[in-house]
Give the backbone structure.
Amino acid sequence: MRERFLAIIFLATLFFANISNSLYAQNSSKEPVVKIEGEVLKTLSISISDFGKMPHVEQNMKDRDGKIQHYSGVPVIELLKEAGVTLGKELKGENLTKYMLVRASDGYEVIFSLAELDPAFTNRVIILADKKDGKPLEDGIGPFRLVVPDENRPARSVHEVSNLIIRFAKE
């Protein structure tokens, strides 16, 4: 009886280990995505391979030590346009209270008013980068990094960006 019980335990352990390995393989083979959601006309999930096919621009940014870093990526404004975010001539009145929350995979969050991103209000181009010096971003930084030029501190240049969420400011 005891041998039969041990055999059942052994088979159950093998079964659950196989399921666990299968689920791990499925999750680890998933391609990284950045999600654009919230007050948008169309929620987007852009994979790293689809992102690589989008038109890229170059942008420089100082790191914490003041060294110039060279990045390549897609202007955030273009991603927001693709999602149908209120921009341009429509960004007035109540719509000026909208903001973009940038969330990293570790939970770190920063915000930008939409006016900080819109070329009708600013000449600064903030990009979502996937490359640094022509190479994919390294682990712990990418696959997506927000690059915010011309700030004294790179605190809003978020590593490992997972979500761009558009919201209204509320009191």
Q: What stands out?
A: The first helix runs from residue 2 to 28. The mean pLDDT is 88.
